[in-house]
Amino acid sequence: MIRTVDRYIARTAVLGTLLVWVSLTLLMAMFSLLTEFQKTAANYGTGDAFWFVVQTGPRLAYQIFPVSALLGSLLGIGSLASANELVAFRTAGVSRLRLASAAMAGALLISIPVMAIGEWIAPGAEQHARAVRWNEMSGQVLIGGPSGMWMRDGNDIVNIRRPLISVGRGEQSISFQDVEIYSFDGFSGLNKITRAKSAFFDSDHWTLQDVFEIRVDTESIVPASLPQAPWISDIKPDLLQSAVTRPPYLSLRVLWDQLEYLQRNGLDDRVYKSAFWAKIVYPFSIIALVMAGMPFLFSTSRHQNLGLRMSVGMTLGGLFMLVNTTAQSLAEAYLLPVALSTAFPSIILVTIAVMVLKRSV
Asked: Among 77, 83, 90, 306, which one is most buried in terms of CB atoms within 10 A?
C-alpha cells in the first residue's frame, strides 16, 4: 500500500512540475525576447532576436527548473490536500515525511533529463547563440568551439583560446588569455604570427602582454619576444565581451578544464569555482526547495487555495535564490570555502523542513 501511495504522490508531483516548468520557461522566453527586441538594429533583426531566444531556451529551462519543481509540487500535492486525500493517507498511517519524500522523488526523476540538458545541450546552444548575435551586430565572423573563439579582423585571423571572467573591485571583468593572431598581407600570404599570454583593452586601444612574434618573408623567418605590444584592431570590446559565455552556462567538463588552467597559471578562479560547485549542488537545491514547501501543505491543507500555494512557492523560491546567490557572492568576495558556501543554504533548508515534518502531528 505504501509503495502505491509513493507512486501516486510522485506522479502527481511530476505532472505539476512539468506543467509549471513549461509555463515558466515560456514566460521567461517571452521576457528574453522583449529584451532582445530592444537590441535590434539594421544587422540584427526580429528574426535574429527570435532565433537567439530559441537557442538560449535550454539554458532558461535549466535555470528555472528548481523553482518550477517547488511550485509544481505545491500545485500537484496541493490539489490532493484540497481534496482531503492527504488527510486520508495520514489516517492510513503514512507519515508526512514519507509523503514529502515521495514528492521529492518525483521532482528528482525529472531533474535527471534536466541536468542532461544543462550539461550537453544548453552550453553549446548558448555559445552558438552568442556567436551568431556577435556576427550580426558586428559584421564580423565569430566561431566558437573547443579551441576558443575564432574571428576575422581585417586581414588578420584571431584566435582567443581562453576568454576568462574574473572578480575585481566587486565586479566581474573579462580577460583574454592565450591569444594568437595570424596576419596576412593581402594575397601574398602569411607574414606574421603573434602569440600573446593575454590581451586587454585600455581606454581606446588593445595591448598584448608576454608576446612572441614570428615574422615570415620570402627569405627568412624572424622570431622576437616582447613584454608587451600594441594590437591595432577593429574588434569592439563591448560586443566581444557579450559573445563570451558566462561560467554558469558552461558544462562541468569545460568548467573543470578552466579551473585546471587557472590554478596552473596562478590566476583568479573564484567565479569558475563558484559555477562548478553550483552545478554539483544543483540536484540538492531541488531537494531542498521541494522539501521546504511540503510543511505549508500539511499545516493548512484544508484551507489553502491555488493562489496561496503559488504565493508561498514564489516567496520561498525567491528567498532561496537570493540567499543562494548572496552566499556564492560572499564566497567569491571574501575567499570563503566555495563548496560549503554553495551547499550551505540547501543544507539548512532541508534540515529545517525535515525537523518541521517530523515534529508535526
From this structure: 77
